# Entry
Amino acid sequence: MARRPWPRIKQEVSRERWVEIPEPVREVYKIWRPTPMFRAYGLEKALDTPAHIYYKYEGVSPAGSHKPNTAVPQAYYNKMEGTKRITTETGAGQWGSALSFACQMFGMGLEVYMVKISYQQKPYRKLLMNTWGAEVIASPSERTQAGRTILAKDPQSPGSLGIAISEAVERAAADPDTKYALGSVLNHVLLHQTVIGLEALKQMEMAGEYPDVVIAPFGGGSNFAGLALPFVHGRIAEGRQTLCLASEPASCPKLTKGQFRYDFGDTLGMTPLMPMFTLGHNFMPPAVHAGGLRYHGAGPIISQLIKDGHVQAEAIQQLECFEAGVLFAKAEGILPAPEANHAIASVIRQAQAAKQAGQRRTILFNLCGRRTILFNLCGHGHFDLQAYDDYFAGKLQDHQFTDEQLYANLRELEEVPFPA
Ligand SMILES: *Cc1c(COP(=O)(O)O)cnc(C)c1O
# Structure
């Protein structure tokens, strides 16, 4: 029997373990799901490690990353709720292109506010969105009060994700038929992404293994949660020892250096407050190429799991990440997105630790006596070749912060106490 789909707000606060994927969403998922899982024989050989390394490849989606996993249900649920048009922001362009594809699948209009500097530097992402029928506007724009205010002060503003969110939210707030959609952080987004980990569980079973370590890059938490949450369940409900490791950029280290407290999801403070590990919503990360990881806070679910010790995190500098990404491309053939390079760098660290430990560290080794590592290759890097060009040309650098730079924004944040 056809059941009424769950409204998104109910998904956001649900305590149900299972929320069914609606049939029309499954139909669209069929274009690229289930995604393949590979054993990285080439990388294992290149590292000369006893570890078994597996990766789930989300780059096979039409937009080239995991983001369509949530863009498609979000477009669908909006359609069911009578929404005519969606607005959103995009930085590097991954989320904008995923939502453009999804809106096209369900015949919905889409306005994407794209950070102006990316709009100028990434014409191919913009063209991809246009091809799927979305309107892409360089932000700050003349179309909104928020944009006009910024432009009046600084006509040359390169824009920022925070400004683009403000423009998209303002447009949606002004029209009852228009809604705003977010591509990470929120609980319902993480829920949609768990399709990755649920498939991975089955695929690991087919391979006859269970991971000792699960790794994914971390921006707002959606692709990490998507892969890791089913394995976190294994820890909590089945007493497994799986190490769930989030890999974040040293240029935006909210998990390893941030504070757990209430903060806003956007720069201007228009969203509700969320409990999260954060560097403060005004924190402006340096312009690293892993654009999808330049976010000040971590989604509430993963933040709580970190606090409770079920998820670990490490921060990695971008040179180590690109070195890892190039090694991976040479060993496995797939050119990873700069964001995914963080996971690969963490995998290499783990594989090398496994090699050094030999077969003695039994708690972290499976029955074969080898450490099994699973990671999320959350996207390909075909639209990010400029990043590789800059890396090869020696133009990339690592980032060090003083405490002052790192904590200035947090000190200015108003402290909101947690409920007793
Ligand atoms: C957006 C993006 C990320 C970061 O977002 P999460 O919500 O943390 O997953 C990571 N990798 C790619 C390829 C992205 O497009």
Notes: The chain has 18 helices and twelve strands. The two ends are 43 Å apart (CA to CA).
